[in-house]
Amino acid sequence: MAELEGADLGNASQSSRVLASVDWFGPINFSTMDAEAQALGFTINTNAATSPESKYLGAAVPSVPDLVAKANPASYITSDDAAFFIQAGSVDRNIPYTQSANFHAALVAAKGADQASYELLAGAGHGTSEFSTTANLDKVIAFFDKTLK
Fold first, then answer.
1. CB 69 within 8 A of CB 75
2. What is the pTM of this model?
3. Residue 20 included in any domain
4. Which of 54, 56, 79, 107 could form a disulfide with 116 if both were Cys (CB 3.0 to 4.6 A apart)?
5. How many domains does the chain have?
6. Which domain covers residue 107, as residue numbers?
7. Is 87's pLDDT higher than 90?
């Protein structure tokens, strides 16, 4: 999208098109995070004006639905997007893992199952050591090797 390009940042002659993406426990839809957390049995307060998401948007999440949609990567999914490898932790209490699962489902719907994979890491929290094990990093490298060949 032209409005997101930022061509004045120094490399206008280089494409900014992403070729492969690894998403570890990313927030996707700010407007549903609180309800998703509650459904999973914990509480967060994304809707508060003091939440990181509200601070990022410059206003409380519920008061700026257009900005929430603009910040949501699912708003930009197209069939020609990069391949995705998504992982989330089953006990993440910062970002509900359903954010990742729902994003994966949207990617599969637009791109097909061979272009988006999702893995829920049992017992992993938000950025905990399960993500940086040799075995897990090998999965990430294998994804990049396969996708960027």
1. yes
2. 0.91
3. yes
4. 107
5. 1
6. 2-9+16-29+78-147
7. yes
| Separation of alpha carbons 70 and 121, rounded Å | 28
Q: Is residue 109 part of a domain?
A: yes
CA distance 147 to 80: 14
Distances (CA, A) of 88 to 25, 61, 67, 108, 136: 5, 23, 25, 17, 12
AA letter at 59: A
Find the radius of gyration of the CA atoms of the chain.
16
Work out the pLDDT band at 59, boundaries 50, 70, 90: very high
Distance between alpha carbon 119 and the CA centroid of its chain, in Å? 13
- DSSP letters for the chain: -HHHH-GGGS-TTS----SEEEEES----GGGHHHHHHHTT----TTSTTSHHHHHHTS-GGG-HHHHHHH-GGGG--TTSPEEEEEEETT-SSS-HHHHHHHHHHHHHHH-GGGEEEEEETT--TT-GGGGSHHHHHHHHHHHHHHT-
- Residue matched to tokens 């399960």: 130
C-beta of residue 99 within 8 angstroms of C-beta of residue 73: no
